[in-house]
Amino acid sequence: MSDFAQFLQENRIDPFTLAKVAGVRYPTIWNALHNKPITQEHAIQLCIALTCITKAVYSGTFITWTQGAENHG
Predict the structure, then answer these.
(1) Domain 3-71 - what CATH class?
(2) 61 closest CA partner among 47, 72, 45
(3) Within 13 Å of residue 48, how many CA atoms lie on the same side as its CB?
(4) Which residues contact 19 (CB under 8 A, 6 or more apart)?
(5) What per-residue confidence (pLDDT) applies to 66?
(6) According to the model, what pLDDT value does residue 73 have?
(7) Where are the domains of the chain?
(8) What is the DSSP track for 25-71?
(9) Positions in the chain whose pLDDT score sits under 50
């Protein structure tokens, strides 16, 4: 389980609600949950939304397209 998935589970955050609050499409959430790359902009939007929902800062990381390209070849 990814850190992101664990954070959502521990804080009882519905992925569809998070997508709506963050202003991203659900596939972005799915990608993050499955350690697939997302854009840097979406990663920032998710962090902001998580802070709004939980009042806590998400300190985990996301694989972004730049990182994904470097790590996956």
Answers:
(1) mainly alpha
(2) 47
(3) 11
(4) 25, 26, 28, 29
(5) 73
(6) 44
(7) 3-71
(8) -HHHHHHHHTT--B-HHHHHHHHHHHHHHHSS-------BHHHHHHH
(9) 68, 72-73
